[in-house]
Amino acid sequence: MNIDLSTIICYFLNYMNKINKFPNTLPVFPLSNFIFFPNTSAPLNIFEPRYIQMINESIKSNRMIGMSQPKGIINPNKPELFKVGCLGKISSFNETDDGRYVIVLNGITRFNIEEEIDNGKPFREFKVNYNGFENDENNNEENINFSDLNLIFNNLKRIFEKQGYTINWAELEKQSLDQTINTLSMASPFSKEEKQMLLEAKDLEFRKQKLEQIIKLYSSDDFSNKTLQ
Q1: Cα within 13 Å of Cα(136), Cβ side
Q2: Do 91 and 106 meet the contact criterion of CB atoms below 8 Å apart?
Q3: Of 37, 75, 96, 171, which has the highest C-beta tally within 10 A?
């Protein structure tokens, strides 16, 4: 098998840049049924005291936190988390009169959780790595056209209407292709396992394929689906 040396060097440099650029220890905010992608933004309302402390500390340092979904509620105070999450940077924040934080978090790159750190704090921190996600920061154009999304849009509109969800489709269509697919993945009324599958998809094309599969399953099951495995 022929190996392109330039490809190896590029991969290595991207990996080293990511090691040097991003923290290998992260405070992680667990939020069920919510996924977050690189190159997207999410407004968050922070009101629990432990997470207010987490945001306080983050603002004073690098403004970076991780987002990851809890797997279950066996231990509601310390649930097991899915191993893949997304690193975000706080781009703006506002402290309300009643002590809450309203923040905007910008997605940077996905990460893998290695192990939890005993930090003696009310919020959780983990050792993480960024292996396999070296291209998350690149905005490379992939071989997908907006016309490919017509079927997804039409089927999703029916699912949203059936389940009482609303979305500004006109604004969505103004976004870039990756933002459109990722926003649909974030906003759609799927199970947490299905959303996690979309988050872990290796690239945009694979994520689009998985999104189509999930939508097809919901549509064929009269919107009362069983989680796609």
Answers
A1: 29
A2: yes
A3: 37
pLDDT at 33 over 80: yes
The answer to whether residue 86 scores a pLDDT higher than 70 is: yes
The full 3-state SS of 161-211, as one line of letters, equals HHCCCCCCHHHHCCCCHHHHHHHHHHHCCCCHHHHHHHHHCCCHHHHHHHH
What are 156's two structure tokens?
A: 């999703």
Which tokens is 76 given?
A: 């509601």
Cα separation, 78 vs 126, in Å, equals: 13
Work out the pLDDT band at 189, boundaries 50, 70, 90.
confident
99, 52 in Cβ contact below 8 A? yes
Rounded Cα distance between 192 and 195, Å, is: 5
pTM of the model: 0.80
Cα–Cα distance, 211 to 189 (Å, whole number)? 12
Contacts of 2 (CB under 8 A, 6+ apart): none
Mean pLDDT of 162-176: 71
